[in-house]
Amino acid sequence: MMKQSNYLWIFMLMMVTGASWAYGSGSSSKACAKPEFTHFTPAENTEVAAGSAFSFTASANTYPNTIKVAVKGLPATLSVTPRTEGGFQVSGTIPASLKGVYARIAITADAQNNCKGDGGWLVKIAE
Q1: 21: which of 28, 29, 51, 115 is 20 to 30 A away, CA to CA?
Q2: Nearest-angstrom CA–CA distance, 123 and 119
Q3: Among 99, 42, 43, which residue's Cα sits nearest to residue 74?
Q4: Is the dihedral angle over the CA atoms 45, 48, 50, 55 positive or is it negative?
Q5: Rounded to the nearest 5°, which phi and psi values hold at 57?
Q6: pLDDT at residue 27 in the model
Q7: Among positive and negative, which fits the CA dihedral 55, 57, 63, 66?
C-alpha cells in the first residue's frame, strides 16, 4: 500500500511539473517585431530653421498608414514612399511656429501582430 501511494505522488508531481513547463514555453505565441526608425535627417542636436524639412526611414514591417510624427507635440504633415531596398522613406516639415526651442521629432507607428513602436530625435530650432 505504501509503495502505491509513493507512485501516485510521483505521478502527480510529474504531471504538475510537465504542465508548468509547457505553459511557460511560449511556443504558441507570436513574437512582436516593433517597427524601427533609422537614417534621421537632420542629425541629432543639429540647429535647423523653423519650417525645415526632416526625414527618416521606417522598417519594412511598418504599416505606412499608421506612421505619425509630432514635433514638440505639434502634428507634422508627412509624405511616406516605399523604398526599393524595403521599408519606407518618410519626410515632413518642422512647424514654422516653433522658433528658438529644442524640439523632439517623435515618431509612432504600428507593425504586424499589433506591435507598436516609437522613436525620434532632438533638434534645436533657430530663432
Answers
A1: 115
A2: 14
A3: 99
A4: negative
A5: -110, 135
A6: 44
A7: negative
Residue 100 has which C-alpha cell? 528658438
Rounded to 5°, angle at Cα 89 from 83 and 90: 160
Contact criterion met (CB below 8 Å) for 91 and 78 = yes
What is the distance between the alpha carbons of residues 77 and 100, in angstroms, rounded to a whole number? 21
Residue spans of alpha helices (H) in the chain: 2-24
pLDDT along the chain (127 residues), means of 10: 56 53 49 94 96 97 97 96 96 96 98 93 96
Residue carrying C-alpha cell 498608414? 65
The residue among 121, 127, 118, 119 whose CA lies nearest residue 103 is 121
Which position has the grid cell 502527480? 12
| CA pair distance 15, 26, nearest whole angstrom | 19
